[in-house]
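Notes to self after the call with IL:
- keep both proteins in one doc
- input above output, always
- annotate only the second one for now

Protein 1:
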Amino acid sequence: KALNDLAFLLDLQGNYDQAKQLHERALRIRQENLGPDHPDVAESLNNLAQTLRYQGKYDEAKPLCERALRIREETLSPNHPLVAIGLNNQAGLLRDQGKYDEAKPLLER
């Protein structure tokens, strides 16, 4: 949790490279301790994807968003708030790229 909080602070300051390193470290720790399909791993994937999104690295962020959403859909209920957050984040990534037609169905779910 502390790594993520520090990474968020770095994101807010625009220190994306440092934030990315911390998000990657948090992801590794969570995967090693919780397994690859734990909801906390999805959170770390999503956090890393958002940092990449802020940098305009959409191609790198996309598979992370997709994996995070898949984990949340498989481990939580379809109406869980974290699933909604995952859908919203994936839609935001598409919206940032001007892919409004692809973003819309995610927001309508």
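Protein 2 (the one to annotate):
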Amino acid sequence: ERKQVAQQEAERARFLVDKAIQDKRSIIIKAQGEAKSAELIGKAIQDNPGFVELRRIDAAKDVSTIISRSANRAFLSSDGLMLGLVAPNASPA
């Protein structure tokens, strides 16, 4: 019986080591992906300044979708949402 318990504990220890190795690999792969993503976004911003505006519009679309699905009704100005929908040189109406 002691031998069986020792085998189970050894098996459990191997499992924990394997899980730790997999977690480590997962963290490394995720970090590499995030670094590559940041690099690509930086390059896109350099190559095309309109990329930032596109991301801002996407964020505004996401916010409006979330708000529209809410049972509560809220009236917010575009300035309050910091969406910058008014051109910098234009005066608000």
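Annotation: DSSP finds two helices and no strands in the chain. The CA atoms of residues 59 and 83 lie 8 Å apart.
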